[in-house]
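The following block was generated as part of the benchmark described in Methods. Ligand: adenine.
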Amino acid sequence: MTTAILSALSEEQGGLMHALQQPEQLRHAGRVFWRGRLHGQPVVLALSGIGKVAAATTAAVLAERFGPARMVFTGVAGGVGEGVQVGDVVVAQDYLQHDFDASPIVPRWEVPGYGGARMDCDAALTALLSGAVRDWLTRAQGTFDANSQPRLHQGLMASGDRFVSAAQESRALRAALLAAGHDVLAVEMEGAAVAQVCRDYGLPFAAVRTISDRADDSAHVDFPWFVEHVAGRHAQGIVNSLVQRL
Ligand code: ADE
């Protein structure tokens, strides 16, 4: 019962690679996959690549070549929801593509053939992941600034092929989606694609993202700092806790 664990960036994957037992490297479709064990659980680690197409290819290769029982995405995102601050953690309940637009053929954001705009994450796996995040945030409590204890948020996440780095754009994106009933907490560039591939293959999917920036005018500064200093530690802490619950 292998768990596939996807990360967007090598900094996010670094800690997991470090902890991987009996690592075995496999290459396919220009990607590197690492098979091994984390706390005795069989896993395969992969970098998704950046953007929805790269992530979809990686997810499809994982599904076809490694026969995983489930897929989990761990990475960073830009916070757009009210009160979703840098350092907080968002667990996705579902996903949409904020840049998908086949209107007027179908309503805005709806993906033809899938019956709507949103792709659900697996409820049971998502509950385990949320438990793992709570556990990690409690265990890591002493390491955070006393005034900024990270919070866990759960809800809708949106993916698109752009790094959102202007407050005006982020506000407009959130307002348009909210007006259509989609209350987005965070934006990133891969999760919705992986959710769709998992739906195609009937695989349970869950995703967790730590907020690296507010998708605003300082996102280009906040993002690289966070990725370098914090993202890997969060990914490792959360995944370690998750695999012990599987
Ligand atoms: N991932 C992390 N921050 C992001 C942002 N602001 N836009 C898109 N993807 C991101």
